[in-house]
Specification:
three-stranded antiparallel beta sheet, four-stranded antiparallel beta sheet, Chitinase A, domain 3, 2 domains, 363 residues
Length: 363
């Protein structure tokens, strides 16, 4: 049984900044780009991350050359991002989060195996290898991303969330009543046609045919059961669920879905909606209007307040980590990278003191 590419795409989307080795990638003699406390950013790391961003842009329609030009324009920002990530991973180790994160990685991998119908982890790993993915690299990527998020949540989000006084929470609620009215919700069913390995135009034409059939009176559930290609554990789900997706708060949907569903009445369907891997036809099963009266909930208000401040607070935290760290960028990259780091002069004045049993790493 082969691992479905959808599962791999989910991993890649959730755990950004992955580091899978590229098949046929040229091997180079490594060199240090930056020293970050006792760790280093190397040229091979930069090349790997660069290639992955190029591949992502190509998947979004750019040519190879366009993607390379775009990524190369932002090389300095990429190096700065790698430095920030290194600092977060170092902080996670300092906070003794490693065992907790490893347990979560194991849980996530087991969840993927179960969802894909593999009875053992080795069968999952073999399927990954068959798909040109290194299970150790998948785990490393998951581990690193979870560590970064755990540091942010413990050191930034939690402190901000709990730091609001009761008066601040009440004042915010009174000033933002529209945010705390129950939003409109919508129950949806779908017909999904995949474009993987198929001609996009042909799949779109087939989706238009199905739309025409349904609007002419064909039963949506029957059409979905016969045609929808959504799978779970390698099996089409529509013969059992008739395409039913579930209920959602309208504001939580993607912007393109909100736009497509805006004027669709209960029982009606959308035109085919293009997604990265196929086409969706959505039917509105039920619309539930939002509540006119706002409802106070302390947790929801704090979450809304955190949402407004989270990005700035995280950026400030990263700046503090950079200011407290020893960071030295090599001459070839210093002029473009250091201004992005906004380092205090003292940060690069001297290397951190080493204990006698550690070797100093030279940039």
């Amino acid at each position: 049984m082969k691992l479905k590419y959808l599962a791999i795409l989910v991993i890649l989307l959730i755990f950004a900044g992955n580091a899978f080795a590229q098949e046929g990638e040229a091997q180079v003699v490594d060199e240090v780009i930056a020293q970050v406390n006792d760790d280093v950013i190397t040229l091979s790391m930069l090349k790997r991350e660069t290639q992955e961003r190029i591949d992502a842009l190509k998947q979004n329609g750019m040519t190879e050359q366009q993607a390379k030009d775009e990524v190369n324009k932002h090389q300095a920002e990429l190096i700065a991002t790698l430095i920030n990530e290194k600092l977060l991973l170092q902080k996670g180790k300092e906070l003794d989060l490693a065992s907790e994160i490893e347990a979560e990685v194991n849980r996530r991998m087991l969840q993927i195996a179960q969802e894909q119908g593999f009875t053992t982890m080795e069968k999952l790993y073999q399927a990954m290898r068959d798909s040109k993915l290194d299970p150790d690299e998948v785990r490393r990527t998951m581990r690193a991303e979870m560590m970064k998020q755990a540091v942010f949540q413990q050191e930034v989000d939690r402190k901000v969330y709990l730091g609001f006084s009761s008066d601040e929470v009440k004042k915010y609620y009174d000033s933002h009543l529209d945010k705390f009215r129950k939003p409109e919700s919508i129950k949806l069913s779908e017909i999904y046609l995949t474009t993987t390995g198929k001609d996009d135009a042909a799949v779109k034409a087939r989706a238009m045919e199905l739309v025409a059939q349904i609007r002419a009176g064909a039963d949506f559930a029957a059409v979905a059961a016969a045609n929808s290609e959504r799978e779970k554990n390698g099996q089409r789900t529509a013969p059992q669920d008739k395409g039913v997706v579930g209920e959602f708060d309208v504001p939580s949907l993607r912007e393109d879905l909100i736009a497509a569903l805006k004027d669709i009445k209960t029982g009606a369907i959308t035109d085919p909606i293009h997604t990265p891997d196929g086409y969706q036809i959505l039917r509105v099963d039920v619309r539930t209007p939002g509540a006119a009266t706002p409802t106070f909930n302390d947790n929801r208000v704090r979450e809304a307040m955190l949402g407004e401040r989270q990005q700035k607070e995280r950026e400030d935290y990263l700046q503090t980590l950079r200011n407290e760290a020893f960071i030295k960028v090599t001459d070839s990259y210093r002029a473009s990278v250091e201004p992005l780091l906004k380092l205090k002069q003292s940060t690069t004045a001297k290397a951190p003191e080493k204990s006698d049993n550690k070797k100093s790493k030279k940039p």
